[in-house]
User: What shape does this take?
Amino acid sequence: MGTIVVIGGGEISELETLGIDREVVKLTHKPNPKALFIPTASSDAPGYCDTFNKVYGDILGCETSHLLLVSQNYTHEEITDLITSADLIYVGGGNTRKMLEIWRNTGVDTLLKEAYTSGTVLAGLSAGSICWFEYGHSDSEAFDDQGEWQYIKLEAMGILSGIHCPHYNEDIRVEDFSRMVNGGSVTGIAVDNNCAIVYKENEYKVMSTRDEAKAYRVMDSEQGVMITEIEQHPSYKPLHELYGAL
Assistant: This one.
């Protein structure tokens, strides 16, 4: 098993997640790691790439590069080289469904799974946090039979167990995520903006850049859907405690 940092949300351009980003870099155990940014979900937004260069490059001292799957064409060898040469890979937010489709078509999903097992630090925000789980609670271009926009359950890469909801403190996500978890057997992992869960080998810890930012375990039970705050500790805790029975 490797290391994945799941970030619920926050404005990286405003340095709202800087403490978390600093931890991502620290996890590589290198003074100037190679950091690859994959902004597929935002259609390779140039401003997003500039922000990544500023935060992970100028501020945190990484050697940055980008994998631009929407706006550029690569050979499979070029994609493989970018991914395998990175010490850390950060996936940006945006349209999760579109991102996963592109990854499956280009083989990026398989390469990221291989990077995980080889020890590359993986991280991401919003779509970039959903992608690592079995399923995600997503707002990616989904409408019901009446043409009303709705949240959908997306199948993701399945490196991490459970169904994940980022931006948990936004909109109606608390209620809707409970609806999605209700009646199922999959553990829900919900993370507020400015909060993250670090999965490292068989351990985890929660960290945040705001006191009010939390992470939660959401599970169905005989008494209905139960929402439990995942406590923050300075040290890592056994991973089985995160997914244990209520």
